[in-house]
Amino acid sequence: MTYTPTKLLTFDSFIKQYGTQTRYELADGELIDMEPTGPHETVAGKLTSKLNIEIDKQQLPWVIPTRAIVRPFANIATARRPDLVVLDELALAQEPLWQREPVITVASSIKLVVEVVSTNWETDYARKVEEYSLFGISEYWIVDFLGLGGIAFIGRPKQPTITVCQLVDDEYEQRQFRLGERIISQTFPGLELQLSDVLPR
User: Chain-centre distance of CA 116, in angstroms?
Assistant: First the structure.
């Protein structure tokens, strides 16, 4: 991930200039080029497929859009593009921007948000944990398929890990799942999924 030195953008100017360019996010007015790799996209694609199958199986009124933007704060120029976001389609009627732009501004619209870790692991483990918890997203997964995160986050020895963050009293309680372990999710309690199911071949 590289930081593009430009003048600070407002949220509206970001949407106007970069709304359709999915490799960019906005953090405190600063444009961020996320530079996804092929393996990163493979993991995100496989996970999207697995969760869509579970949504269908459970007949849930949920949808996984391809280009949603999360705006966690109304007064801060930040726009996140999660690698995967599960939305409650019935709640989208309450979203003020949804009919014009795929922008989420109400936390209750989001059932789950997922970030697939790449070289910007610090953002996924620290900044986005804070942003998503303050916004009120009930469940957040950090899929660290290469084991890039710091030892403080994924332990020693460093290895591929999925961290499931559950919102409890405005803070995330975190639990790590490694190869061979079934992922436990409150959003998808019947899900039969392990990290190995979404790794690149």
Answer: 7
pLDDT in tens, 90-145: 999 999 999 999 999 999 999 999 999 988 899 999 999 999 999 999 999 999 99
- Flag whether 191 is in a domain: yes
The number of CA neighbours under 13 Å toward the Cβ of 113 is 30
- CA atoms within a 13 Å half-sphere pointing along the CA-CB vector of 136: 7
Asked if residue 19 is part of any domain, the answer here is no
CATH number, domain of 144, equals 3.90.1570.10
Q: What is the pLDDT of residues 130-169, one digit of tens each?
A: 999 999 999 999 999 999 999 999 999 999 999 999 999 9
- 22 within domain boundaries: no
Domain around 179: 37-197
Domains of the chain: total: 1
Cβ neighbour number for residue 98 with a 10 Å cutoff? 19
Q: Which residues pair with 177 in a beta bridge?
A: 162
